Amino acid sequence: MNEENIDPGIQEQINFMFASVTYPTAQQQIQVIFAQTSELKNFANYLFNTIANESLGYSARSAACIQLRHKIRNIPIENRHQIKQLSSTILPKILHSEDPVFTNSVAALIAEVSSEFGSSIFQSFSTTIESLLSDESSLYNGLSLIYELSSNGEVIQGEYLNHLLDYLTYEDPRINLITSNIIKELSSKIPAIIKEQVIIPLISNGEFGSLQEDCIVQIIDSSSNLLQAFSDDYEISEEERYLIYEFFKFCVQSNHDGYAIPAAYALQENSFDLDQDLIEYLFLKISQDEDLCEGTFSQQCASLISETIHRDLETYQEIFGQLIKENIQSPQIHLVKSALRTLSITSELFEDISDIVSYVISQAATNSPTKADAIGCIANIGAINSNFSESALNTIFPSINDPNENIRMEALRSLTVILSALEHPADPYLQNFVLAIQRYKQYEGVNIFNALAAFFRTCTDLESSPNTEPIVTNIISIFMETNESDPLYDAVLSSIRELICCVPDFLVPVFSADGFLIKLKSAIDGDSDLKQVDENTEANNSSLTAPILSFFSACLNNNSEGFSNFPDFLEYLADTCANLITNGTSGSKTCAWEFLSSVLNTEVLNFEKYYEIILEKSQIINCDNECDDVVGNCAYLLYSLLQKIGSNIEQSVLKNILRNMAKSLTMVNDSDDSKNIAVTIMLIMYILQVQTINDVSDVPSDANNYLQTVILELEETEGIPESCLELCQMFKVQQSE
Which InterPro entries match (predicted)? Predict the structure, then answer.
């Protein structure tokens, strides 16, 4: 036990709190514990005592491991030496545990400590692992340590590599699963060894048939990793590639979606040529599920068929074309469905499908058993081929009021697809929505308003239709009657947003509707995002603030003059956003920065009172403490703000902002966010009159390389300030050198 600088009373309190942790809400409870004890500089010492305390239950000790693992990178410098000592003396001893959850927690903590402080603080991992693997009672513990170290990027060589296949087929399911996890981790790190020792022997002998589902999925992923690695760095024989193909094919044809779906994805990802037998199987199975929904085997079959044809049109066009023609009029419904679904994803590849499309339209317009699939097919064809767009719309629209609810739902989903892809007039189609809204049932409301939003988004003459006014009245009425917790709420609000974006003049009458703004204000005021939240609390699924703010941003950007007729409400929203960028959750912060940017750029409000809070937050925001979207939207606002007042801001403030933006640029994943950050950095560099980003102290050493990469991807007209074009040119010169 570690007694140095330990208060027994606090230790007892911490032990009690961890002993009270229950799953599945353990992580939230642990965050509360940390919040209550975060002022303790030696909090990690208390955690080690909890972890090593054998009188506590494994659940409490596991929870302490999780907490220490998450905080190990933030240990104060003065405590790091002691933490190294505690790690090296305590953790290896308690790895010999009977509880698998505790074992995994300790192994994960060892891997994290090794990553942070270096593996040299422990004795040889190989020796520890060999000792654990030599005893059947600690076999799982040793494999768990291997897995966690591998997950953290550390490859442990050793005799165990020769026994992975034995462990994979061991009589204990826990051993099988942890071994398959290890194989997957190592397949991209030491692919040659995994190929020779595991994958090829396993699939050659057909031993995979006895594995549990999760293990087969991991072997599929491992095989795919091997193919990716070999295509880059190694060689793989045609015979070995064929063996892997046959393994994937076996899994696809297993009638077991659990590994049929990942196997089909692996075939697609690795661009395998498909044999006739598998092609016909995929064609049949594309109609297996009721809908081509994400995550279904039918959807993955469709994706694999589409990728295969697009990759090698000459080989597969005739094969699939023949299957479609032979089955489109079959008396067997499942064959007709297969033909329709295949046609819908491949129609653009065929030169002349007029006759087939005419037949599909006739099926969509009649009460045939395949009407729903025919509607979906003609919608996809109409979305990509303008020759059939009008016919598709004329066929689908009446079906949103069909007596059959399945037909109505498919028609609405299909409209969302085709309407998003082409411009169209309001009439004669809008009348169908008027009827649908007047008689809709609760379960189809979301689909109706999603389709209506798509209709508004691409409509060319909405303001001139006689049906527009009654439908707007109905929408507002339904919105006022809809509870904030109802999924319909967001769908209706989205349709109102697209309505105003389509015809900005509708903003004033909509906002003036009795109780409309009051209802939205009430929703914002009652939302948890506006309450003081713990820094570790993530946005909940029922949060309303983010979509409402996004709605108002769109309205403001489309009709700032109309919005200015509601100055009190506008100021209320801006004040709310100024609060949210500090106290909100990720979703609401993102939209708060977006709305403040709209206010600044449209100049509908005196923005000076928000300067201080914006500059204050901008000096501490980075991708370490906020999500990419928050930082990206903050950068977008800063770019506009700095253009207005950049020369009046203290250089120390600008440098702090630059440091955080530079740090974020090395971490951000989203390309739009990285562009916003990069352009803002360049503007700050221009204001500071510095030649390179590294002229400012404490900027990450690799930030300049990231900045060059992003800037070179931007065209000069895509938002780079004119004053920064010289810097952009300098980056190009540096890159060429």
Answer: ARM-like (IPR011989), ARM-type_fold (IPR016024)
